[in-house]
Amino acid sequence: MQREEIWIEKYRPWRLDEVVGQPHIIRNLKSYVEKRNLPHLIFSGPAGVGKTAAAVALARELFGDTWSENFTELNASDERGIEVVRNRIKNFARTMPIGDSAFKIIFLDEADALTDAAQSALRRTMERYSGTCRFILSCNYSSKIIEPIQSRCSVYRFKQLPDDAIAARIAYIADKEGLKLSDASIDAITYVAMGDMRRAINALQSAAVLSKEIRPEMVYGLTAMARPEEIEGLIKEAMNGSFMTALDKLAELLDRGVSGDEILAQMHRLVISMDIPARKKVELMDRIGEADFRITEGANERIQLDALIASFFLAGTRGRG
């Protein structure tokens, strides 16, 4: 029996032109390929927006058939200490590149997880071996990279992918896999993806295991997310004075396995687009942020969400008497 391949690997971009949603960054990376040279780089941005894909595609186009020998990928979150810099990184950096390449590339994923001591050691390694090695550091927040490293790198900030870029890629994969995908299903996948291509492809593959015809309810169920209209209805019930009804809707979502984090993230997206006065939006956003912070700090999730619904009720009914 043939083992099913993971689609995020099967459909990983292998050339820079295949990386979607980051046109300005890709244009600059292609100029490095043309010049056969590049500086140290920092790729920052949220998960699933193409940082690793861009690094691998860059290496493939620079090195051709010898790309795998001249490119190594390390995950800094797995090995956070100074020893990984002193041993694995230094050992790779000090060896000469294979073939006619002028340098090798070390791709350090989740570099913001490195300790300050490890980053300081990395800085010295970058200085010492810059003649034969280039570093690409990937992170969610470039501010967590120490300033001496930032000053030695060109920083590229990857943005969340637009819905149309995700929709086009999902439609392409569905066609290749022989899936039946409606516009409503594509909308559901782009909604749950929240700008993350990896999340979108995983949602599509999960649904495809169940059926060749992808339906929106399958997508929401498999990703444990609520439909946008459910979250909007919850907010409106509370603001219109139906406090207990809103609490019942919240309890139903939690019982279905929708996490508090997802509910807050969806509320954040919907409040911004809702047709309510700006002052009320500010008030609701402030309370969503406060609830998110408290839950992150370890407060009881259910109590914080109930309190958030109560604040929506007060914001909506204030001044009605």
In CATH terms, the superfamily of the largest domain is P-loop containing nucleotide triphosphate hydrolases
Helix content: 55-70%
Order of helices and strands: HHEHEHEHEHEHEHHEHHHHHH
Beta-strand segment tally: 7
Overall structural class, as computed from helix and strand content, comes to: alpha/beta
| End-to-end Cα distance | 69 Å
The chain-level mean pLDDT equals 89
CATH class descriptor of the largest domain: Alpha Beta
Q: Which percent band covers the strand fraction?
A: 5-15%
**What's the structural domain tally?**
3
Q: What is the CATH topology descriptor of the largest domain?
A: Rossmann fold
Q: Count the helices. How many?
A: 15
**Low-pLDDT segments:** none
Largest sheet: 5 strands, parallel
Brief overview:
This protein is α/β, with parallel strands linked by helices and 321 residues long. It has helices spanning 7-10, 23-35, 51-63, 82-94, 116-128, 147-150, 163-177, 183-193, 197-210, 216-222, 228-239, 243-255, 260-273, 278-296, 301-317, and strands spanning 40-44, 71-75, 104-109, 133-139, 153-157, 180-181, 213-214. It is built from 15 helices and seven strands.
Give keywords:
single chain, two-stranded parallel ribbon, 3 domains, 321 residues, globular
